[in-house]
């Protein structure tokens, strides 16, 4: 298998279109046409991880965090990023990062986090906005089913647990072609009125080119009338964080002990106890201070995330227990999930989880 075959699998696990605009995901180094000798999955692709990959005969490292996050103007080995990149390139080791593409996936980082705590009835905490678009087009009844099915096949009409969703309404269309026209129905210069069917479907924005290709290839009109809108609807199945419920309510101390045990946290920084039982819990792996208000709005009794600053603990406002369990700890099981997903899609390539500890934070 070539790297491009593996990246196709990784796109199933974490579509790159799901990533945040600021992120740097996908193939960072290496050629997509290189034959894969083995895959090492890790949290951070540091120099020691590249060495481990080389020692184990793996020429593709799939990492959660992108080692190349912002641009490099020089590659001289003066810092940990440059040293890792140099070692990877010199030894023909390709690097591929998933980061927020997996953060935003319904089954990704935050579902893994929630499952580790035993949360039930989970849903997205911060649904992705501006991601849903709507296509409206018009065609004659004879072309209606062929066109609509082609749009479905291209990915349009999927809403949550439902596929092939559309709205179809009948009406009267009018047109009059000029001397350069070649109308499918009627003649040049003739004013036409004909029965038409209006087809409306929604789709995720990264599918737009594919959807429009299907539209143009399967529509019988010389000039295809269509409109594409960006909807303000939030995408309920794509987004950051997750909120769910524990099977039983716990007091605050017992809850934090549960979190410490399940997530193997070296220590937990938290806001003051407010004497409230904890059952509804919001989680967001990695840096999640921006979603404190979302957790409060969701009615969470506790919010677990990482990288909180001193003043951000005040934002709990006595409304919930706010806890920083550590960045690495909040994403602890992500590499295992990634490796299992890849291995489940191919038996031809060895898939290993890195043994190198890349957590830069230690506890005394």
From TrEMBL:
Q: Which NCBIfam families match?
A: YbgI_SA1388 (TIGR00486)
Give the InterPro entries listed for this entry.
Answer: DUF34/NIF3, DUF34/NIF3_bac, DUF34/NIF3_sf, N-reg_PII/ATP_PRibTrfase_C
Protein name per its UniProtKB record: GTP cyclohydrolase 1 type 2 homolog
Which ranges of the sequence are coiled-coil?
Answer: none
Keywords in UniProt for this one? Answer: Metal-binding
Q: Which Gene3D superfamilies match?
A: 3.30.70.120, NIF3 (NGG1p interacting factor 3)-like
Q: Which family does it belong to?
A: Belongs to the GTP cyclohydrolase I type 2/NIF3 family.
Q: Name one Pfam family in it.
A: DUF34_NIF3
The keyword Kinase appears for this protein: no
Question: Binding of a divalent metal cation: at which residues?
Answer: 65, 103, 327, 331
């Amino acid at each position: 298998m070539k790297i491009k075959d593996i990246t196709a699998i990784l796109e199933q696990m974490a579509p790159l279109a799901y990533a945040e605009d600021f992120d740097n995901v996908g193939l960072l180094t290496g050629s997509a046409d290189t034959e894969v000798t083995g895959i090492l999955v890790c949290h951070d692709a540091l120099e020691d991880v590249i060495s481990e990959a080389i020692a184990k005969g793996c020429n593709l490292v799939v990492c959660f965090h992108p080692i190349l996050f912002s641009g490099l103007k020089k590659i001289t080995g003066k810092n940990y990023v440059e040293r890792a990149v140099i070692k990877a390139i010199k030894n023909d080791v390709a690097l591929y990062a998933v980061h927020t593409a997996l953060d935003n996936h319904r089954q990704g980082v935050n579902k893994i986090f929630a499952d580790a705590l035993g949360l039930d009835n989970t849903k997205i905490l911060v649904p992705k906005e501006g991601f849903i678009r709507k296509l409206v087009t018009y065609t004659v009844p004879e072309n209606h089913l062929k066109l609509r099915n082609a749009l479905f096949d291209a990915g349009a009409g999927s809403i949550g647990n439902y596929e092939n969703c559309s709205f179809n309404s009948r009406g009267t269309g009018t047109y009059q072609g000029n001397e350069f026209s070649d109308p499918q129905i009627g003649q040049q210069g003739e004013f036409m009125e004909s029965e038409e069917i209006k087809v409306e479907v929604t789709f995720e924005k990264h599918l737009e080119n594919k959807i429009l290709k299907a539209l143009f290839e399967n529509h019988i009109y010389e000039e295809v009338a269509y409109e594409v809108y960006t909807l303000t609807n939030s995408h309920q199945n794509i987004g950051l964080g997750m909120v769910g419920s524990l099977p039983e309510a716990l007091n605050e101390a017992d809850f934090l002990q549960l979190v410490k045990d399940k997530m193997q946290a070296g220590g937990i920084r938290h806001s003051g106890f407010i004497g409230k039982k904890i059952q509804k819990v919001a989680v967001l792996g990695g840096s999640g201070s921006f979603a404190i208000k979302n957790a409060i709005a969701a009615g969470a009794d506790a919010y677990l995330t990482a990288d909180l600053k001193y003043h951000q603990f005040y934002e709990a406002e006595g409304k919930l227990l706010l806890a920083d369990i550590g960045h690495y700890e909040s994403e602890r099981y992500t590499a295992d999930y990634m490796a299992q997903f890849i291995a489940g899609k191919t038996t031809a390539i060895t898939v290993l989880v890195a043994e190198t500890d890349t957590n830069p934070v230690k506890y005394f």
